[in-house]
Each structure stands twice: as C-alpha cells, then as structure tokens.
Input
Amino acid sequence: MRASDEAFFNFETGVNTYLPVLVLFLCAAGFALAPLGLAWLWAKRFSPTKPGPDKNATYECGLQSKWDARIQFKSGYYIYAILFLIFDVETVFMLPFAVVFHRLSVGGCLAMLFFLFLFLEGLLWAWKKGVLTWK
Amino acid sequence: METLEEICFRIKTALPAARVEIIPNASPCGQRSLLLGREQGLAVATFLRDDPQLRLDYCSNVTGVDRLEPSLPQGFVQSPSSAGLKKEAGEGLGESGTGCLEAVYHLFSMAHKNGPVVLRLRTENRLAAVRLPSLTPVWRSCEFQEREIFDLFGIVFDGHPDLRRLLMWEGFQGFPMRRDYLVADDFECEPTPHGDVPKRMSPRQGCAEVIQKTATADPRV
Amino acid sequence: MSAILETPVRAFESVSGAGAGEMLELAIGPHHPSTHGVFRMDVVLDGERVRRLKPVFGYLHRNHEKIAEGQSYLSSMPYTDRLDYFCSLTNNWAYALTVEKLAGLQVPERAEYIRVITAELTRVQNHLCLIGFLLQDMGASGTPLMYAFREREKILDLFESLTGARMMCNYMRFGGCRVDLPTGWMEEAQQVVQGLTRFLDEFEALLTGNEILMARTMHIGVLSSAAAVNAGVTGPMLRASGVNYDVRKVDRYGVYDRFDFRIPLGDHGDTYDRYLIRVLEMRESLKILRVALRDLPEGPVMDPKARLRGFRPKAGEAYGRIEAPKGELGFHLISDGSPNPFRYRVRPPSLMNLTVLEEMCMGRMLADVVVILGSVDIVLGEVDR
Amino acid sequence: MEVTDQELKIDLQKQGVLMTSLNELYNWGRKNSVWPLQFGLACCAIEMIAASMARYDLARFGAEVFRPSPRQADLMIVAGTVTKKMAPQVVRLYNQMAEPKYVIAMGACAISGGPFKQGYNVLKGIDRYLPVDVHIPGCPPRPEALLHAFMTLQNKIASQPLTGPARPRHLRAGAPSEFSVPQCGPHGLVPPSNPAVWRPPTAAQAG
Output
C-alpha cells in the first residue's frame, strides 16, 4: 500500500483521512437540494406552471412597461463595484498573512507588503483619476 | 376691505378698456362677483394682484360652471314649472342664445387677510368659442384647477403652460361635467334579481347618439 | 413609459426610447407603497437625482361633484366623509358651513362648541397619522405608525360613540349637529385629551431630537413663502414656510375667537419644519380641546327652525372655507332654488399643495422625493374627488 | 358502530397521536401565511391598515406582512373604489401575481361601485374583470369584518382538495392564470366587462 493510499484508508488513526469532509459535503448538498427537489417534484405532480405575457412583463407599478428592466445605467456604479470587489478579495488574501504573522521571516513579510503595496498603488491611481468622487 | 364698487371703480381707472360688471348675489352671504371681459381678464387679474391696497395674492378656488340656459344665475326669477327649470333670459354677457361656460375665481389677500373677491370669466358660447385667458401666469394655484376645468368642462385656457387632461385619461372624449353629458354605460338597466328592471333612462337631448354608439359596443344591452 | 412623456421633453431631447444614455424614466406609479394611495409621479432620474417630476392624477376620480349635482343638499353630506377620508368631521363642517352661509341659517351655541371639539380631535388624529406615515416613508417601518394608530383608535372610539361610525361620521347638519353627546362622553373625551398630552411628550421625545429624522428632513424640500402663497399652498405647509395664515384666525368662523391658541410658524420651510409644525399644532389643538370641553354650554344641538326635509335654499352662490388639517378646504355652492345644487365644487387643499411638488423635489435624491411627498400629506379621495 | 375518519382522528388526538394528510398539511401551511398585496385604493385601505395595527392585529392570521410587489403576494385586497382609469392597472397587477392567488373585494365600492355607482369614471365592481373569492360589504367595512373575511378565506383554502375535479384553479393546468386587461376607450373601458369572468345576474322574474 503506498503511503498516499494508506493515508487515505487509514481508519484506525483517522487523523488525516478526508472521509468526514466528503460525508459532510454530501449532507450539506443533500440538505440544500432536497427541498428544491421536493418542490420541483410537487410542481410537476400537482401545480402546473402557467407563464403568460402579462405575468412575465416587467412590473412597472401596474402600468404597461415598454422596455425590459435591464437598461443602461451610469458607469460610475460599475467602477465603484469593481473597486469594492478588488479590495474585498484582497482582505481574503490577508487572512493567511495574519495567521502566520508571528512565525514569518523578513522575506515573507516583504513579499506580503509588496502585495499590499500593489493594491495601494491601484487605489491611489483611482483616487487621482477622480472616480471616487460621486457627482 | 373695499366694497366691490370701489374695486370696480379702481379697475376702470387703472384699465379704462376693461369691461367690468358687478353680478348681484341673492344669497344672504352677499358674495357678489365681478364679471370681466375676456380680452382684459389677464390685465385685470395682474392689477388686482399687484395693487398695493388690494394685494389679492392668493387665488383660492377656480370653479367651472356650465350654464346651459343663456340667463344669469343670480337675480333671475325661477318660474316654478314642473318640467324643471325655466328661467327668463336676463341681460348679461352671455349674448349668444346657447348659454356659456364660466370660470369663477375666488381671490383672497394673505397680506391684508381679507375676504373673497369673486371674478367671473365667461366664454362666448358652449360649442365653438370656448376660449378663456388663463390666469396661471398670475396665480400659480390656478394651474391644476384650470386643467381640471379644461378636462371636465372643455374651456380652453390660452396661455396655460401645460393644458392637458387632469383627471380623465388621455384618450377620453367628451366633457363629463357638462350638464348635457350622458354617462355612456348607464347602470340602471342592469338586471337586478329583485323583480322588474327599471326601463332604460330615456336618452336626454344632446348626446343621444352617444348612447346608441356605445350601446352597440355593449354586449349586454 | 415613453407614453407618459408625451408633452415635449424640452431639456432632454436626447432622451429617446429605452432610457438611452444617462436618463432613466420611471413611473412611481399608481400602485406604490410611498404614494399613500393611487397617485402617480412620472420621474426622470439622472442616476439618483430627480431631473423632472410630473404628477398624474385621476386614478381615484370618483365624480363626487357630478353625483352631488344629481341629488339633494343633505344627501351629499355622507359623500363629504369620503373626500378626505382621514378627517370626515372637518369635511362635514366645511360643507355645513357653506350651506349655512348660502341659506343664512343660524347654529346654536352648543353645536358650535361640539363642532370645534370634533374638528380639533380630527386634526390631532390626522397629524398623528401623518407623522406615522412620514416616519414609515423614512424607513422606520411600523413602529411609529403602530403608536400613532394606537392613539388614533382612542379618538375613533370617541367618534364612534358620538356619531355611530369610526371614520365616516356624517354627523353635521345644516344648522347644527345630528345628535347630542351621549352620557359620559365628556369625561371620556377629557381622559383621551389627557392621555394624548402625555403621549405627545413621549412621542416627541423619541422623534424630534432624533438624528436620523433630522438628517433625512432638514433642508430637504424647501419651499419659499412667496412661492407658497402664489401656488395656493395652505395649511401646515404654508405655515412651515413662515406665512402666518390660518383660516381659523382669518375668518374667525365658528367660536374660534373665544379660544386663545397660537399659530406655529416655521422659518426654513423644509420637511423638518413641516413635521414640527404638525406636532406643535397638535399641542395647540389639545389646548383648545381642554378649554372647549370645560365650558361646553347646555342647549339644543340643532337649530329648531332648520328644515331638513325639502331644504330649498334661495337662488344664489356661496363660498365657505375652514382650516382643515391639510389646509384650506372650501366648498363653492351655486343654487338655483331647486332641492339639488346647481353647481357643487370642492376646493381640495391636498391638490393645491401638490402644485409645488416638482420645485421641492428638483435635483433631490429619489429617497427624498418619497419623504417630501409624505410631508405634503395628500389623501387621494380629496385630490381626485 | 361505523367510525368515520374524523372521529378516529379526534380519538387518536386525545391519546396524543396526530394524524394528518398531505392535503391538510399543504392547506394548513398555505392558509396561515397568506401575504396580502399592499394595495390600498381609498377609504377601505385605511381600515385595512387599522386592521393590521396593534388593536385588531391581523398578525394573528399570519397576514400582517403587506408585500408591495405582486411577485411576493398571494392575496390582493381590492380596498376602495376601482375607477375606470385604475382598472387596467388592477387587472395587470393581478396577472403579475404568482399562483395560487386570491382576491378579496373589500367594501361596497369594490363589489359594485358602492356610493359612487353613478360616477362616469367608476367601475361598477371589480368582479367584472377578476374572479373574486371573498366579498366584504360595508363602506368602509370595520376591521373586524376584514378579519372575518380572512377567516372565510382560510376556510376556503382549507377546503380545497389537492386532486380530483374540485381542485382549485392554480392546480388545474387548463384554468387561466391571467385575465384580459381592459383598455381605456373613448367613453369607457373596452370591453366593459370580461365575459369569461362576469355573468350579469339574471332577474329572477317571479311567475
């Protein structure tokens, strides 16, 4: 038995086996999909779906809507959203940095700070470009 | 607050060309009104608002009135006839025989806090010449009320910034508050389970054809 | 939606078809939680800012005036309850006052006092509801409205024991009131007034100093006094802009000249002033109520000479007005001697106060439009009649 | 002694054993969480709001959540006068609601035009265009009347079978979920009523 197989099937020690993770994943997926499946079965068996021109029309406070709800809107919104997304993901990367911070060598620290500097430089550019001021 | 005669006199001195006439009011409240000529209406209104003694800066109410008969409302003798209202023709500005449409303005002064000065403006007749000068440039409160009168009575106000129907929908034809407007689907004829159905309303004079046209479209009738 | 902008869109010639470019055409339509009924505003938005706002009326046009022309004077009285369905008693009073002016009827002393008492109770419950809905529009969903309606129910109990109906009282007649106070009503009313005074202190302690309320309403929807007077705005909105004009003090109708009450005036004319004016007006109304309930005279509630059956006023016209909670509510009646009015016109304060809605909302955020509309206090039964 | 299901169920319940059927469970869940559409037209809307406030407390019936959007509502309370200008919007909102959906015609105006029946702009009752489940007379009906209407509606929901010919409209594939939206014509609504829904009452001529 090669070491990798043994590690996987070693039930006695059970230290680094991945079986519980698999079981938990299946339970979670089942827990999520079961109601959806039941609802789908119920709808197929009992209550038929009845789409119609009016029901699928965009809701416009009761009025007849001429256009679809998806329309162009100010580009300012889009840029704000993208900037937020970048910095939100950045904080996720900082999590492992914080966990191993006290055992990190100077090189590691520098690498992380360089990573942070990249984002800072992006922020300063956006700021200078005047994207952040909302007209 | 000056009496109506003094106001009349002041208007005539300020605007000699204006036709102003005092309409009596037999009701005990004694709110007599000033009948203005159509051409000078806007000028007189601006004068009433800007005159320092009067300062009528608040136009409280604009009422549309449909006078089917040619005579004046007040001071006429109503002969008690059963068939409804027969009135002797009184003198007055409603010259043509087919009656007139009228807009009544109640003006107050918020500066001097004194009572209503009532203005009346009359159209020439009820069919073609239904134009009146709009007083919205003078008092902004007339904007919606004049739009409502245009919508329900059909008086066209010249100089109104945005003359559209206020209450009825855009494609509506006819002016419902006129006295000879016939409601299209009269509800009395609907069969009720309590015995015999009252005969359809006898179509009154004027819009008989309205009832026939819609009657055909109404499957039930 | 482009159908709603059939009038020439001067400033936005570039607006064509589906919201090309920046502008977004939107109908805050007949069915919308913030419009307090079936009121519609066609709004052109630049992002969040309002560039154009056109109100559309008529979704509750129930032809009150046409129906009134087809029936006698008295049978229009229950219809006046349904004009401004929050304040049926002040509507009744305005109509009764105009017909009494038209026909020259006298009203006995006790009836005048009862009219003042019921009108001020109506004013208090109307302003309570307004503040509840205003806070609901601002986002405090439910809590202030719950308190406001709890107090309103107490006042509605008084109306129900007096007139028989909670909202549609149909209580006043030409020349007095329909029925005298039931036994024990006076003490009950005094307790309610006492309770309301305490409640108002608690309500105001929670709201008036609240930072969120001040942030959302101060300097928003500012209305200058000159624009207000010219646009025919009346009532609390006008006094919030600093114009001292209250029909109770100007016309001195009823027995209002026997009570000394002050007229609160705002100095900025913004939404916060309109909120504060209504709270102060409630306090003044409670002051009037305490005095009126204390020295309510004895005597008949109906003028013995008044004839209800076959009431035929002489030919003539009259314009009567009162200070309704929303502004100056006027009736213009033209009679030609027959039992039916020749012309029956209602001067709606809510419709007049909406004349300036576009100026107040121009350039503001969409969320402020909702708050400004809430502070204007419109009721569609009266706007569309 | 022939024991019907009902009596058996009650006896078992006494012993603490609960018996139910899929149909009862389905209807029990639906009837106790009817979300009304926030749809106030006129004076009846104020009584509807008063019914949802602390004193009359619509929350006891699980219906205090007033949803502004038709997508999330299952009950449309037509509270107030439906005018001809508003009727197309009312029918369109009903069409945009998700199945199963119910209609309560609250007040005399929604049932038959009420005191404003002679109005030229008033629709003589919403059941000319929509199938109405519960009618509440009154002008405006008291909040207790609205609570009683909710009880009636809950009984109606509880008695709807899951299968068989008598099953409700939303379970039948053929039954329409939308009704034609009228247009505002030159003098009134075109068509004046929806024949699929509205059959004028025939006068029961005696003899």
Remarks:
- Chains A and B do not touch (no CB pair under 8 Å).
- The two ends of chain A are 68 Å apart (CA to CA).
- Residues 19-45 of chain A form the longest helix (27 residues).
